[in-house]
Amino acid sequence: MPVKRYKIPIILILVVAISVTIFMWFGRPKPVEVTVKSVGYGLVQDTVANTRAGTIKACRRAGISPSIGGQIISLPVREGDAVKAGDLLMELWNDDLRAQLEQASSEAKAVAASARQACIKAEVARREASRLKRLQKDKLTSEEAVDRADGEARALQSACNAALAENEVSKARIQVVRAGLDRTRLIAPFAGIVAEVNGEVGEFVTPSPVGIPTPPGIDLMDVSCVYVSAPIDEVDAPQIRVTMTANISLDAMSGQVFEGRVRRVAPYVLELEKQARTVEVEVDFVCPQDCRGMLPGYSADIEIILDEREAALRIPTESILEGNKVLLLTDEGILEQQEISTGLSNWDWTEVTDGLAEGQVVVLSIEREGVEDGVPAVRDTQSLDD
Q: Using CA atoms, how far apart are residues 103 and 272, in angstroms rounded to an integer?
């Protein structure tokens, strides 16, 4: 009988133990899923980037307007047309100037003919005077006849000179009229694309008043050469030098990074109200064969490379917590916080100089709920582990 009294408590204890075990098993914390990346070696660059979006600009761009007012009679180009240097872009009414040019040309021809006539007479008179001088030596003519012939030759030569001068004046008059005619025509100063046309045939245009800018008649840009202009914070600007290498990225060409080179650092600081003070930096594309199709006006970002290391121990910059710490995923599946020392850094990669070894696994999804030191974790399907 005593044996039976102990049997019930033992069974009860076993039931309780099993229940507690089952409760603890199903009540244990569920491992949080994390995105991870293995620590490894690779390129790390120290860069500075623009504070606001930059803009692709054409190396040459001209807003061309007539220097005089008038009515548009010819507009042979439209927006988007490609033109060559010297092509006519716009022409104003100029019938009066054409008539003046024709008149001046006719007058110039008449003056030139008169000059030739006067000079021929002067040449004949000169020869006659020379002949009489030879005859005088032989006492075959009088001194009076020689003096008269010499005076007439000099007079006719002066008339020839005057006629030649008048001929030059008539040529200059043609140039004056032609210059006035040229002012009624807009000619392409270089090959490019017509970006904007302000005006239509029959409309009147007037030159811009002094100090009052108005839209140009033709906006012409050379898209064969483009560069990026972007603002850099005044704190970063002193580190930038001309010819430094840069990375260029465009919203219009997502995922592509183009090589560039600093062409200019503005020698002044832009002070804009309610905005940080910046320095304008210009970067050339170093990829003429890959940069076709880039249009002026595209937004662009630049990363200017200050320093770089080819084979640095690195981790993604997004994995770093405040205070230079990272979360490691251990072999046991537990998140463990680790303090590190860093070197070069940019938006993508940060060099690790102490605190980590190659092959360790750092957590990228540090903002995910439940990700903290000491909790169990598993890799998710988006992990970037090599």
A: 57
Structure tokens at 164: 């030649």
pLDDT (mean) for 164-181: 92
- 186-216 pLDDT, tens per residue? 999 999 999 999 989 999 988 777 767 778 8
Phi, psi angle pair for 68, to nearest 5°: -130, 165
Q: Which of 308, 332, 350 is the last residue of a domain?
A: 308
Give the whole-angstrom CA distance, residue 31 versus residue 29.
6
Question: Do 112 and 240 meet the contact criterion of CB atoms below 8 Å apart?
Answer: no
Whether 100 and 178 map to the same domain: the answer is yes
Q: How many domains are there within the chain?
A: 4
Contact 59, 227 (CB under 8 A): yes
In a domain, 15, yes or no: no
pTM above 0.85, yes or no: no
Question: What integer pLDDT is reported at residue 39 of this predicted model?
Answer: 92
For residue 288, what are the domain limits? Answer: 49-60+223-308
Q: Based on the fold, state whether residues 178 and 141 are members of the same structural domain.
A: yes
